[in-house]
Amino acid sequence: MMEEENYDGYGHVKQLNADTTKEELVQLYSAWSKTYDKDVHDLAYLGPAVAADQLSKKLKEFGYKSDVSILDLGCGTGLVGEELHNHGFQNIHGLDLSQELLNVAQEKGIYRSLQQGLMGSDGCKDLGVPANQYDAVICVGVFTSGHVKGKGLDDVVHVVKPGGLASFGVNETVADDPEYGYHKKMNQLSAEGRWKLISKIHEPQYFKEGSAWFYIYQIV
Ligand SMILES: C[S@@+](CC[C@H](N)C(=O)[O-])C[C@H]1O[C@@H](n2cnc3c(N)ncnc32)[C@H](O)[C@@H]1O
């Protein structure tokens, strides 16, 4: 499907559920690619700013400099990259399922590299990123209804070097939903000694109609 001028992307996102397929998501975001930034701005979407701000603070606390390598998983049109860039970071990379959204991100000239990849596959095999590549990862707006389930947290851990940081948000509507399995996966990764919790923050104004939890973990 080509992008549409008056496409009601948010209206479609609200219809997604645990059975939504990746093909449906690709179709939705292709159609929404050109108007996504304006629409989420109108929805007062604060996710990218909140997560980038928290990660920026922690990276500085942990002694990283502005050349720290950061992978933005599910980067979409690049709103998170823009926020990280505003914090002075220069070594930002992006990955997304949708080529149309990657094209929009590319036009912003912020990312050092952009690639298509799929989160949530067995053994991270469809992500297309070797293990332990980045100092940090950030993932916003992806752990939400109809998008990526708890299994996608394996990808978050996979891409980061030991000692590095992972920052991600989980939309409150599905945060405790066993079908998505976020808590189970987070607890499993902690029990296996793969990561440890650094911070957990509730953001009531994630966007004007919803709230989210924001986590930072250190990869072990
Ligand atoms: C709500 S948008 C968030 C985009 C961006 N992070 C932001 O905050 O504006 C969700 C993004 O997740 C991407 N996505 C959904 N499922 C994915 C998957 N399995 N693997 C990679 N990206 C995925 C979509 O293509 C879309 O760009």
What characterizes the major β-sheet? 7 strands, mixed
> What name does the CATH topology carry?
Rossmann fold
User: Can you count the helices?
Assistant: 9
Based on CA atoms alone, the radius of gyration comes out at 16 Å
Q: Based on the structure given, which CATH architecture is correct?
A: 3-Layer(aba) Sandwich
What global shape is seen?
Answer: globular
Termini Cα gap: 42 Å
From the structure above, extract its key features:
7 strands; binds S-adenosylmethionine; 220 residues; alpha/beta; seven-stranded mixed sheet
Could you explain the architecture of this structure?
The protein is α/β, with parallel strands linked by helices and 220 residues long. It has a single domain (44-219), classed as Rossmann fold, CATH 3.40.50. Helices cover 34% and strands 26% of the residues. It contains nine helices and seven strands. The protein has helices at residues 9-13, 22-32, 36-42, 47-61, 79-86, 99-107, 153-158, 172-175, 182-191, and strands at residues 70-73, 92-96, 113-116, 134-143, 160-171, 195-207, 210-219. A seven-stranded mixed β-sheet has the order 3-2-1-4-5-7-6, sandwiched between helices. A hairpin with a 2-residue loop joins strand 6 (195-207) and strand 7. Helix 4 crosses helix 5. It starts with 8 loop residues before the first helix and ends with a strand. S-adenosylmethionine is lined by residues 22, 25, 29, 47-48, 74-76, 79-80, 96-98, 101, 118-120, 140-142, 147-148.
